[in-house]
TrEMBL record:
Protein name, entry field: DNA polymerase
Molecular functions per Gene Ontology: 4 iron, 4 sulfur cluster binding; deaminated base DNA N-glycosylase activity; DNA-directed DNA polymerase activity; metal ion binding
Lineage: Bacteria, Pseudomonadati, Pseudomonadota, Alphaproteobacteria, Sphingomonadales
Taxonomic source organism: Sphingomonas pseudosanguinis
E.C. code: 2.7.7.7
Matches recorded under Gene3D superfamilies: Uracil-DNA glycosylase-like domain (3.40.470.10)
Gene Ontology biological-process annotations: DNA repair
Keywords: 4Fe-4S, DNA damage, DNA repair, Hydrolase, Iron, Iron-sulfur, Metal-binding, Nucleotidyltransferase, Transferase
One Pfam family this sequence matches: UDG
Length: 256
């Protein structure tokens, strides 16, 4: 065996190649060849030193103030807000698909917020259609509510390409969702799914579940409960018992 390691000449897979490049980069190698040839046998040239020349300090310059962009004001009436959510000014206007507006009474005691429309909701023309919608209707009936009595909305007016709220728009869409809650001023707020929980509570669903949260807004305060989205309950029926516990907390709040 020789002292110099040998490598298989077969092509390296991308992960191994990236690992080797990272190793050389960490070792300080940042180029393969130089532009000009170098005489490696020549004697090193001693550097020439110069006496420092005193510099006259330049007059201080006052930096121009940086102007922060003015925040986009959201409509302060529900009718104008819902119209704006469907306009080209909304953050999701450039996404594929159609925008779906919120439904239900403006003075509803219960507001329900989900993450985004499902794939079939655009054709149906409403948020929560198909099998998730039928399960949602049964959940509402179990607490004495219906689509006619609740205000139903989504964090995203259109469905994102990957089905998840884009990270670069998450903060903006969360501000819009909380503004929407303030316009409705519901006594109870049901947040279905992780994206809805993050938008309003700033907390992951796994941590938010199981207790009420006071949500302050410019028009007062609402009590929120976070629970599983109906599409999750269809995939994981065992979670329905936990969902029912969440709904019971909500029932107690609405009964006050």
């Amino acid at each position: 065996m020789g002292a110099i390691p040998t490598f298989d000449t077969a092509p390296l897979d991308s992960a191994l190649a990236a690992s080797l490049l990272d190793w050389w980069h960490d070792a300080g190698v940042d180029l393969l060849v130089e532009d000009a040839p170098r005489d490696w046998m020549a004697e090193p040239v001693q550097p020439v030193t110069f006496a420092p020349t005193p510099l006259t300090p330049a007059a201080p310059r006052t930096a121009a103030p940086v102007m922060a962009p003015a925040p986009t004001l959201l409509p302060d009436t529900l009718a104008a807000f819902l119209e704006w959510r469907l306009s080209d000014a909304a953050p999701e206007a450039s996404w594929d698909g159609v925008s779906l507006t919120a439904t239900g009474p403006a003075d509803a005691a219960l507001m329900v917020l989900v993450d985004c429309p499902d794939r079939d909701d655009g054709e149906a023309g409403q948020i929560l259609s198909g099998a998730p919608g039928r399960l949602f209707d049964r959940m509402l009936a179990a607490i004495g509510q219906s689509r006619d009595t609740v205000h139903l909305a989504s964090v995203c007016a259109r469905r994102p390409l990957a089905g998840r709220t884009p990270a670069d728009l998450e903060t903006r869409l969360a501000d819009i969702a909380r503004h929407h809650v303030g316009l409705i001023r519901p006594r109870g707020l049901l947040l279905l799914g992780n994206a809805a929980s993050r938008a309003v509570l700033g907390t992951e669903l796994t941590s938010a579940r199981g207790h009420l949260h006071a949500v302050d807004h410019k028009n007062g305060k609402s009590q929120a409960i976070a629970s599983f989205h109906p599409r999750f309950l269809i995939e994981k029926p065992m979670a329905k018992a936990e969902s029912w516990k969440d709904l019971q907390l909500l029932i107690g709040e609405l009964a006050k």
